[in-house]
Amino acid sequence: MDLLDRLFASEADRWTANASTWWDDFYADRSKPVPFFVTKPDESLVSYVERGLLTPGRALDLGCGPGRNAIYLASLGFEVDAVDLSPAAVAWAEQRAREAEVDVRFVCGDAFTAELTPGRYDLVYDSGCLHHLPPHRRVSYRALLSRVLVPGGHLALTCFAAGAMGSELPDEEFYREGRLYGGLAYSPDALRWIFSDFTEVEMRMMEEQPPNAPAFGVPFLLAALFRRPAGA
């Protein structure tokens, strides 16, 4: 895995050992008009909760960024751990959590090597982590789910949608080029293949939200909810 990781090191993309520096620079100016710098949770996550598809339990937020989804879950009574590579992102998220007066355990580091309790989480939430991983790290991602997600637990994610945002190159081209081109685009069928042993609960395009809406939504993300089989 380390050898394959190094194929992408030359551009210090959003992955590799230089990723935390890249993201620290990205988060340095909090006033930038970046859509997900808002404090609102994903509209898809809100929808899952409001329809009873997800209920309070123990949650892990992968690539939490400034913490908007972790804070939302904590406000509903979830016991939340949140991990991100970027110290700048984690510091911002911790500040937001204090302001919101919620308790979130933030972990600064690589989710694949961080000390996360095996079999702990009822929900793994990923808003934009998967699409920044090189193809070979899908193996690490699946191994992480197997390690930390309880049988019967849920994986909820948003990622770049094919035809709307992100690169649609064949996997091998990323290794030839040594670049991820800002992120990989996924189709519904691609997600179904990656998580073929999970049960699909729902998959749809994220619904765009107006500026004054209480939730975050942009039309170029694919939102998916899967359930790990109870016997797995």
UniProtKB/TrEMBL annotation:
UniProt keyword S-adenosyl-L-methionine, yes or no: yes
Pfam families reported for this sequence: Methyltransf_25
Keywords annotated in UniProt: Methyltransferase, S-adenosyl-L-methionine, Transferase
Residues annotated as signal peptide: none
Domain of life: Bacteria
InterPro entries (UniProt xref): Methyltransf_25, SAM-dependent_MTases_sf
GO MF: methyltransferase activity
GO annotation (BP), single: methylation
Presence of the UniProt keyword Methyltransferase in the record: yes
Domain Methyltransferase: from-to ranges: 60-153
Name of the protein this chain belongs to: Class I SAM-dependent methyltransferase
